[in-house]
Design goal:
Elements (H helix, E strand, L loop, with lengths): L1 E3 L7 H9 L7 H20 L4 E7 L4 E7 L4 E6 L3 H10 L5 E10 L5 E9 L7 E5 L2 E2 L3 H13 L4 E10 H10 L4 E8 L1 E2 L5 E2 L5 H6 L4
Parallel strand pairs: 1-10, 4-5, 4-7, 7-9, 8-9, 9-10
Antiparallel strand pairs: 2-3, 5-6, 11-12
């Protein structure tokens, strides 16, 4: 399944526009908050895919029947750029456990790169719904590598991958290598630079959210 948020007009288009706008980006707090809001919107859409059970709720005047999720998903993100986006998911799934991944690119002599996953800290994912949220889905290599490592260790019941902005190439890479995954994307851009930056994209999400690294 592939869901693209901006294929339908909604207020989320305003959040996406501000995230891309180089002038608005100078307000780091707003940049982080807009990622959160898109995360909240995608978390709501994913919630429609969860399993539900009917319960009775005692009100001051009687008993209300309502369907609630059987359990919260486990959320995951790749440090550091994905933290604000991940926060949006936590705002919605407020009882969810979280997994965190540290990874970075290693550039080869020929200019290509490999993904070095340094550490994965995760709760038990056995039989769980897992949502991996990362702000930018460029080549898709890091997301695929992380998910494959987790799928070897755990029998994950349902896998969802969410991104604010993805490249068309990254989407196809994930769909080819993780056919069981559902993708939830804010917007898909067609181009990437030779250094794997999405065009028009929004720039370096980690630096814009937290400051330039040295």
């Amino acid at each position: 399944m592939l869901f693209i948020l901006n294929h339908t007009n909604s207020i989320c288009n305003q959040y996406l526009a501000e995230l891309r706008d180089s002038e608005v980006q100078t307000d780091r707090m707003r940049f982080r908050r807009n990622q959160e809001r898109i995360g909240e919107a995608l978390a709501y859409e994913i919630s429609k895919q969860l399993n539900y059970i009917g319960v009775e709720v005692q009100t001051p005047l009687g008993i209300a029947q309502i369907n609630v999720p059987v359990e919260h998903p486990v959320l995951g993100t790749i440090l550091r750029a994905g933290l604000p986006f991940h926060q949006g998911f936590m705002n919605v799934y407020d009882q969810a456990a979280s997994a965190f991944v540290t990874a970075h690119r290693k550039t080869q002599k020929n200019g290509s790169f490999v993904i070095d996953i340094e550490h994965i800290s995760t709760p038990d994912l056995e039989g769980k719904t897992f949502i991996l949220c990362d702000t930018m889905l460029a080549t898709g290599q890091s997301v695929v590598q992380v998910c494959k490592e987790l799928l070897v260790q755990y029998n994950i019941a349902a896998l969802h991958i969410a991104a604010v902005i993805a490249s068309a190439e990254g989407v196809e890479h994930v769909r080819a290598h993780l056919p069981m995954a559902n993708l939830w994307i804010g917007a898909v851009d067609e181009e990437m630079t030779t250094k794997s930056y999405i065009v028009p994209g929004l720039g370096d999400a980690g630096d814009l959210a937290f400051g330039e690294k040295i």
